[in-house]
């Protein structure tokens, strides 16, 4: 499959992708555990069907030492006992923040309160921005049919 647009070869796309990559690097530096960041990024990408981001975040998580078992079970995290309570809270927030149209009121108060039990205000801000960023990246990649499979961990660092 060929991408509809190669963002890196167009002036507008290149400028905007450069800005997004800068934001992505900033998010990596936020006070949120790297494992949580990758699990959330992977789950949001699974929900949105973004193959290139699934490829990227699976490989980045594996390179950071995440186990194949935990990566393989992200889509069924509720039934898997391999995640911490904090990771479960982040994954629940990621799902509701991604599926906003499915819930009449957006993210439920209970989901937010659960996340707030595990993360401080700075971490919650980072988590919200990460979920939002991943949704943006997923949509740009899905709309333009970016191909997956050839990502190498560390490519954008």
From TrEMBL:
Domain (Carboxymuconolactone decarboxylase-like) ranges: 22-96
Pfam family, one: CMD
Superkingdom: Bacteria
InterPro entries: AhpD-like, AhpD_core, CMD-like
Protein name (record): Carboxymuconolactone decarboxylase family protein
């Amino acid at each position: 499959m060929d991408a509809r647009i190669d963002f890196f070869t167009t002036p507008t796309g290149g400028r905007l992708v450069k800005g997004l990559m800068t934001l992505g690097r900033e998010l990596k530096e936020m006070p949120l555990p790297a494992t949580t960041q990758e699990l959330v990024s992977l789950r949001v990408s699974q929900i949105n069907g973004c193959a290139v981001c699934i490829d990227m975040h699976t490989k980045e998580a594996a390179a950071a030492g995440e186990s194949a078992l935990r990566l393989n079970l992200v889509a069924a995290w509720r039934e898997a006992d391999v995640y911490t309570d904090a990771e479960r809270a982040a994954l629940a927030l990621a799902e509701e923040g991604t599926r906003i149209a499915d819930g009449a009121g957006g993210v439920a108060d209970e989901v937010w309160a659960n996340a707030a039990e595990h993360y401080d205000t700075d971490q919650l801000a980072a988590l919200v921005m990460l979920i939002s960023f991943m949704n943006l990246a997923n949509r740009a990649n899905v709309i333009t049919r970016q191909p997956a499979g050839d990502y190498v961990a560390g490519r954008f660092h």
